[in-house]
Amino acid sequence: MQLSKYLAAGLLLIAPATFAAPPAADKEKDVDRMENAGTVIDEIMNIPDDIPQDLLDKARCVVVLPSVLKAAFVVGGSYGRGVMVCRTGAGFKGPWGAPAMYALEGGSIGFQIGGQATDFVILVMNDRGASSLLKSKVKLGADAAVAAGPKGRDASANTDAYMRAEMLSYSRSRGVFAGISLEGSTLRPDNDANRNVYGKEATAAAIIAESKFEAPPEGRKLVSRLQKASPTLKP
Prior knowledge:
Strand content: 15-25%
Number of strands: 9
Largest sheet: 9 strands, mixed
Oligomer: single chain
Order of helices and strands: HHHEEEHEHEEHEEEHHH
Low-confidence stretches: 1-22, 72-78
Mean pLDDT: 82
Structural class: alpha+beta
Number of domains: 1
């Protein structure tokens, strides 16, 4: 009986994310997420102990998932939504391009982040990691090596763990910014959301690898902030 009560409560918590919303409402939510991702990066870049500069300069892509709530991961695991923005051109060596919508899935995340809203930032550190994320769901820790990222602009990032990792992950909750392990979670393109924002032909590959779309106004803050912070890839 007690278990049934908890299950019912969990289902009520995730109901808003589970049941279909009108297309216009979906588009508005997706556009808001893109805009919020820019705010998250801007705020993180303005704190003293943020992402080490040498890591940001080596990153091919940055994933930002704003305001992920524990409620979204109750009962079997759901997902947090956000965006991935990558450097353009061959080898991801050009300026930062348009953001694509992405989803983070994994039931264990809820136990890590507690009950408060948490922002996630993931750096994608090499071409293989970036290319794999354009095609399909990637399981962190299995399909791609992931580690909790170091923080502080002058922090040393040359340890074996950071050098081997394809992705480095961070969280920010109640103003505290720190590295966090996301092993066991999955990251995938959210192409329904991409079509909501860009149109029916939009996929993560078309937005990022093929540069077929320009960033909408709500995504320009994120792109310009990354361009200002790290204009050039430094392998």
